[in-house]
Design a protein that fits this description.
With about 500 residues, the chain is of the alpha+beta class. It has one domain: Cytochrome P450 (Cytochrome p450). The protein contains 18 helices and eleven strands. The chain has a four-stranded mixed beta sheet, sandwiched between helices. A three-stranded antiparallel beta sheet has the order 3-11-8. A hairpin with a 1-residue loop joins strand 9 and strand 10. The longest helix has about 40 residues. The protein is globular, with a radius of gyration of 25 Å. Bound molecules: protoporphyrin IX containing FE (HEM). Protoporphyrin IX containing FE binds next to helix 12 and helix 18. InterPro entries: Cyt_P450, Cyt_P450_CS, Cyt_P450_E_grp-I, Cyt_P450_sf, Cytochrome_P450_Monooxygen.
Amino acid sequence: MAMMIMSAAATLAASLLGYLCWNLVYAFWVSPLAAYYKLRRNGFGGPTPSFPLGNIKEMRTIAKLTVSSSSSGGGCGGGGGISHDIHSNVFPYFSQWQNSHGKVFVYWLGTEPFMYIADPEFLKEMSAGVMGKSWGKPRAMSSLMVESTTRMLDEWATLISSGVPEIEVESHITATAGEIIAKTSFGVGYNESGRMVVEKLRAMQLTLFNSNRYVGVPYSKIMCPRKTLDAKKLGKEIDSLLLSIISTRKNSLNTTTNNNKDLLGLLLQENHADGRLGKTLTTRELVDECKTFFFGGHETTALAISWTLMLLAKHPEWQDELRKEIKEVSGDKTRVDFAMLSSLKKMGWVMNEVLRLYSPAPNVQRQAKEDIKVNGRTIPKGTNMWIDVVAMHHDRTLWGDDVYEFKPERFKADPLYGGCKHKMGFMPFGFGGRMCVGRNLTMMEYKIVLSLILTRFSFSLSPSYDHSPAIVLSLRPSHGVPLVLRPLA
Ligand code: HEM
């Protein structure tokens, strides 16, 4: 009898083990190989993956080789020489694979296929071309922006007068942009809880980036338990901070007239409109909405301004042009106000040229909800698409021989596309129905902050500036942007 029970238990254990093994083999090899051959049959080639890591190992090797060759002088220009030809440095594997596989190919992160796209015509054929939406109560928000920026500039002035003319401006601008987005998204002011939300959200961003190393590899969360737990803990802390902000605001809605013109105020008012709070969006959805805005809006704008300061520091003639324009537009007034922003045309060209050369959002992603037919080939349902914005913005065939030059005037005759040969070759804010909802707000923040800086200071690049653009979710200057600032009389 005992023998029979033991043998039944052994059979059960063996079948369980067999089932587990089959699941692993299926997830790690069978399923990705089937998808691989399906994509190949549809005419989509690319670097050969080896499962379960896909092309991750090769990507790391190429990235490592690039880092060591740029630190030995082959990069995009440390110290004095600054080259804007950055694609092969920030996305070395894509740059290398483009040479052998063209502008559309498939690569693998673990067992997940990604369709790489750097061909605007393919993108046009593939996308539905729906219009985007936009958000923002600009006039009410501009005064919040002036207030935060002025506080930052006063701090710069104090530093300079105490004998510190060199300031690493990127960190200051990122902190100020965090403050602005916290105010405009969920009405959190420059106080302790406001700073705490901003700091925690930023920490979350970094944790997410760092835990992304094995994205696409099955069970990768189990492989990095520490990072997964850290991200979970931070997520809970952020949620409870935002929940307490939301419930305070909900209570004040019941007792007072709500004058808050931030995103949360608008959402709460919509929810409250028919007297049944929470009908339109649940509290959970409100928290998610606030987080999406913070992640989408804070660093991107700060980076656009920081890269602009780097480029203007190298091009003092453009600093002068913009100061002249600000003077013309503002006339007798001491500072630019909301109504004047649309007249700052040259500043708009500069912004676009900066977004072209150093697009803070270096890529855009999509997933095929259905099979998509493109020129007789089928992109299977579920395929991830990875659109290389940096590659298209630095493509000589689209922009001409001066592609790597800082030339804001290319947007003079063609303010939307800068003379790009294809309408989808310039897309700093994405495309179609999911295009960035914050682009109007960004334009406003950019012009306000830049006008305030340019009217108070002139600046040049510090000799310690090290030109090393790198991807940490966004396209950032690895070592910040140290400037030498001089107050203007
Ligand atoms: C220079 C500044 C900015 C850049 C370069 C930028 C870029 C982008 C890009 C490329 C996307 C993806 C679009 C797509 O998938 O087609 C996006 C989405 C988004 N952006 Fe921005 N953005 C900026 C500023 C902002 C600001 C200031 C906010 C908020 C106040 C914001 C909020 C969002 C949100 C919420 C989404 C997600 C939209 C959706 O998924 O429907 N962005 N942005």
